[in-house]
Amino acid sequence: MREDQIEAATAPLRDDIRFLGAILGETIRDHEGTEVFDLIERVRREAFRVRRSEVDRGAVGDMLRGIDISIGIPLIRAFSHFLLLANLAEDLQRDRRRSAHLAVGAPPQDSSLAATYRKLDTAELDAAVVADLLTDALVAPVITAHPTETRRRTVFDVQAGITDLMRRRQRYAPSEPEYPEFEKQIRRQILTLWRTSLIRLARLRIQDEIEVGLRYYERTLLEVIPRINAEVRAALRTRWPDSELLARPILRPGSWIGGDRDGNPNVTGAVVHRATHRAGEVAFGHYLTELEELEKSLSQSSRLVTVSPELGRLADAGHDDSPQRADEPYRRAIRSIRARLSAAAQRALADLPPVAPAALPPAVTASAGRAGTDSLGGAIVADGAQPYASPAELLADLDIIDASMRSTGDDLLADDRLAGLRGAVETFGFHLQGLDMRQNSETHEQVVAELFAWAGVHSDYASLSEPKRVELLAAELATRRPLVAPAAYEAGPGARLSELAVKELGVLRAAKVALDSLGPDAVPNYIISMCTSVSDMLEAALLLKEVGILDPGDDISGPSGPVGVVPLFETIDDLRHGAETLSATLEVPVYRRLVAARGMRQEVMLGYSDSNKDGGYLAANWALYRAELDLVEVAQRTGIRLRLFHGRGGTVGRGGGRSYNAILAQPAGAVRGSLRLTEQGEVISTKYADPSTAYRNLESLVAGTLESTLLDVEGLGADAGPAYEVFDELAEAARRAYARLVHETPGFVEYFRASTPVAEVAALNLGSRPASRKPTSSVQDLRAIPWVMAWSQARVMLPGWYGTGTAIQQWVGGDPQRLATLSELFRRWPFFRDVMSNLAQVMAKADMHIAARYAELVPDETLRDTIFGMIREEYDRTVRMHAAVTGVGELLSDNPALAESIHNRFPYLEPLNAMQVDLLRRRRAGDESELVERGILLTMNGLATALRNSG
To answer: pLDDT tens digit string along 291-342?
Structure first.
């Protein structure tokens, strides 16, 4: 694209940024005074001069060093707000680019479903093969409580309001009378933003995190997910009409919020109850609201339309004797459904402990023995209404309405709100989302040992060898007999088990209640962190059996259980031995019977964060790829249907990057129609806060899954073996380079803690989880979020690249043929392209000039020079090696939108980093004032917002 074309394409973005920035500036001047406004403008102009290389890089830092904190706070807030508004403008620009692309009739873009369908149409796929590969198809984005989403809900809502106003404003010309009103409303929103605190006074509670996760359903997911499911099913069945593809919707979301207790002491049985209860409330509330709207709109008269006999019986079943609706069978049928659904909601939710008042329509609270009135003036009486036993029963009644309408040619009506409701019920059931359970294998071992000792099975389980443990666990899993009576693990003074055992069993009992009340999909998985052995998997299964979730069966009936046991392989070593662990577990007859009872489905989770922290970027990525190859081989040999769950974070250092490319970069056979992946941090709001953005991101997940399943996307063919050998050598070299710095250099942890705001990350009121798994100072025990976020704040971004340059340089060794080999692999292999693209993305956000200022916070000059020298040299080396392999001089040549974004943001990031360094220096010198602490937290908030995937 020519420079003039780039200029024209980005002009609307620049106009939006200027417009929003001008309003923000005027708001600051009006409410903070000219002194503050003039300072902000001087700093902004100086930062632009730095970007143009007109002054030294330290100019902005020199201006701000020692600034009066009472003036520094509004300056930090100003640049943070501008960056937030820039995010908004960039999102609008992406919408414009997409619309322009469609308007000129250009071919559909990769990652869109339209492009995927074109590829499938040219592939001449066999219908039987497609049907087999898409059996049990599932794409599950799993929202987690990893707390790098720094925005408060109020800020989130105001930003959404500004986005909506900006979209509506661009539909009018400046000369039209409506145009000035939009500016006035945007000014109101920006003033509200300026008057709202960016950071919380108190740390988020886990119940707050539950609500944060659920808000995305109400804002986008309840509408967008069923729409995509319907479109994908229709498109595939049109192409393969005899295969009845996607018997279940392909997109079915999940959550960890309220079920992930690995290292989070706040997850209890009560929390599990709350998480499942609130999810059920959202699902029932949505259905009842939609039914009320349907009742208003489906006013067809039996004097004008003939309905099916089934519809007539459904209408009569509600015993609605109102003369106003005597000739309105659809309305009477819907009232019958509403009464039954209200009764079902009351029954399901009453089985769970009460929580804060729910956002349910009056129909729910009026049910079960009480009557309520609706907007049509009629009473909905739930007395005597038979509750729906399952979502399938509700769907069957909705299908009766759909079929009757289509029989009289009313397809247009059936395809509207009714179709959306049917799709929602099919997708979300009564549970809304599958809540995963997760706990560390070490905790399982302690609880199982206590249960065995209490029951007299074995007094010292921990002393047993692995074969003896497996033998004992397998024997217990073969019997329905529980180890202890439920009364033994009731909490309170009379409890006969330890506090740990009571808590763990209480969590699982709460999961059992949710399964019984909301259906078998309410809690689909039990994930074992740090899983390293067969006994780790069997211990989790035993605990599920103990509370009645898993039934071993008997001579007449086989085993059953709605919850799958999922090993999580996290460290480099665990990934290398993961396939071996799974294979050995499947050789245990009692466990294989459990897997067979679940249709031979076995899920395995792969941890991106800890493997990266353990071995570095390139070694972790290759260990994950190798682990998938090995797991696929085990699946083929043992006959299981393998599903991989990718524990990706928002950042490249935690597995982040463009999801579509990441899916295509999976090994052959690793996807097979299904995958799950975590959605974490501020990436969640970036992807799912807006309906159109949510649609694009979800369709890219489905598009990538279909292509990786049905097409040959690896691209290596017979050259796969040699390519894998090359990467074995590269990964080992990268691991050694990373280990020399992180694990072997004396004083590295001291350097890390002094040169980054890692201690202050723990103080930022982001989420309910502690910053470390254990109260130690080791890198191993530090959680991946503060590890990555601290390096991001300091603009080093070390977890996303370190060691890669050394590995490539050593492997190439000056041999042009070896460099040509890597360049060819980069061209042909999606995995390598994705690795290098993500590396470039994160390195472009790094800034060694700013990082050097953070290094100055290290008091030991020798330590500072040694470690920062290693970092700087490796950064420069990696940039050179990236250019040599890819053949391009610019890091972001394949991502011009991100390159433009970073260029535009530079003048606003520079002051935030400069202020953060200055305030960290003050605090560490003894200034523990509330304003200094608040200033640090505000800079962290602003930088996290600006970088968009910082933790």
So the answer is: 999 999 999 999 999 999 999 999 999 888 788 888 999 999 999 999 999 9
pLDDT of residue 146: 55
Question: Residue 638: how many CB atoms within 10 A of its CB?
Answer: 16
DSSP H or E stretch at residue 641: strand 641-647
Burial class for 386, CB neighbours closer than 10 Å (0-12, 13-18, 19+): exposed
d(CA 634, CA 595): 14
- Which one-letter DSSP state was computed for residue 551? B
Is the sign of the CA dihedral 575, 579, 580, 585 positive or negative?
positive
Spell out a b/e string for 456-475, using b for 16 or more CB atoms within 10 Å of the CB, else e. Answer: eebeebeebeeeebbebbbe
Residue 641 backbone dihedrals phi, psi, to 5 degrees: -100, 100
* CB-CB neighbours of 399 under 10 Å: 14
Round to whole Å and give the CA distance between 213 and 370. Answer: 32
Q: Does position 379 have pLDDT exceeding 70, yes or no? A: no
146, 277, 458, 687: the catalytic one is 146
Query: What pLDDT score was predicted for residue 649?
Result: 56
Report helix, strand or coil for 69: helix
Q: Which residue has the tokens 């920062």?
A: 868
State the Cα–Cα distance between residues 605 and 564, nearest whole angstrom. Answer: 12
pLDDT at 31: 95
Query: Residue 362: exposed, middle, or buried by beta-carbon count in 10 A (0-12, 13-18, 19+)?
Result: middle
Tokens of 586: 């499947």
User: Which amino acid is residue 765, in one-letter code?
Assistant: N
Q: CA-CA-CA-CA torsion for 507, 512, 513, 515, nearest 10 degrees? A: 130
Q: Where are the beta strands (DSSP E) in 474-626?
A: 525-529, 564-569, 601-607
Cβ atoms within 10 Å, residue 732 = 16
Q: How big is the CA angle at 939 (ends 938 and 942), to the nearest 5 degrees?
A: 85
pLDDT band at 358 (very low <50, low <70, confident <90, very high): very low
Q: How many helices (H) and strands (E) does the chain have?
A: 39, 11
Active-site pick, 273, 458, 613, 646 = 613
**Separation CA 537–CA 535 (nearest Å):** 5
Looking at the chain, the whole-number percentage of residues with pLDDT higher than 90 is 70
pTM of the model: 0.90
Q: Any idea what DSSP says for residue 203?
A: P
Angle (deg, nearest 10), helices 3-32 and 69-103: 140
Task: Give me the DSSP letters along 859-897.
Answer: S-HHHHHHHHHHHHHHHHHHHHHHHHHHS-SSTTTT-HH
CB 203, CB 765: distance < 8 Å: yes
* Known catalytic residue at 613: yes
